[in-house]
Amino acid sequence: MFNESRLLERVAYGSEYGHRYKTDIRELRNGVERRNAEWERPLGQYSVIFKNLDYEDHQIVIAAHHACAGALVGFRFKDASDFFADGEVIGYGSGSTETYQLIKSYKFGSLSYQREIVKPVNGTVKIFADGQEVAAAIDYTTGQVEISATAGAEITWQGEFDVPVRFEDDVSFSIENRHRGQPVCSGSVELLEIRL
């Protein structure tokens, strides 16, 4: 199950954004390591701090936790450390209507990784054929784009994207203060990216 709603963005400084891989490492008797990637793709892992939330914003986070039944239902989250793509090549035109998957590339020396973007943000995505913006049918729930472009035209995109996540732990808040008779709350929320 997945809910297309995005969790409250009012995160505080000190929030942590990261990714984890699952790699099996075995050390041989001579000290040489044998490394085997058990996962083809990483998973995002987030420790999000909500600081001094007014009552209304606090209720938004609590409502999300209850409505999702804790870790049961996934939802959208904005990874503030990596949420934008620009000039990403997703394919080449064939002269007829084709479907392309939005991706983002990460390069380091001779190595590269292509990440599928499955939760683009509605209204932020632009599609280009040979640098000219073109009309396209964009599925904001899967990251798939349907477009007709001339044969050989380079298809690129730019826009924002979310990460599909779930709550990893139960949510707890502390009352820090009161404002106009309402509690002001702070707490942290652990989130884990999910595969769709």
Topology (elements, then pairings):
Blueprint: E1 2-6, E2 16-20, E3 23-27, E4 33-37, E5 43-53, H1 55-67, E6 74-77, E7 84-92, E8 97-101, E9 103-108, E10 111-116, E11 126-129, E12 132-134, E13 137-139, E14 144-148, E15 154-160, E16 163-167, E17 172-179, E18 182-193
Parallel strand pairs: 1-6
Antiparallel strand pairs: 2-5, 3-4, 5-18, 6-16, 7-15, 8-14, 9-10, 11-12, 11-15, 13-14, 16-18, 17-18
Characterization of this structure:
It is a single chain. The protein is mostly beta strands. The protein has one helix spanning 55-67; strands at 2-6, 16-20, 23-27, 33-37, 43-53, 74-77, 84-92, 97-101, 103-108, 111-116, 126-129, 132-134, 137-139, 144-148, 154-160, 163-167, 172-179, 182-193. The strands form five sheets. Strands 1, 2, 5, 6, 16, 17 and 18 form a seven-stranded mixed beta sheet that branches. A four-stranded antiparallel beta sheet has the order 7-15-11-12, with no helix packed on it. Strand 9 and strand 10 form a beta hairpin. The longest helix has 13 residues, at 55-67. It is globular, with a radius of gyration of 20 Å.
- The ordered H/E elements are EEEEEHEEEEEEEEEEEEE
Structural class: mainly beta
Number of strands: 18
Largest sheet: 7 strands, mixed
> What amount of the residues lies in strands?
over 45%
**Residues in helices, as a percent range:** under 10%
Task: Give the overall shape, derived from the CA principal axes.
Answer: globular
Poorly predicted parts = none
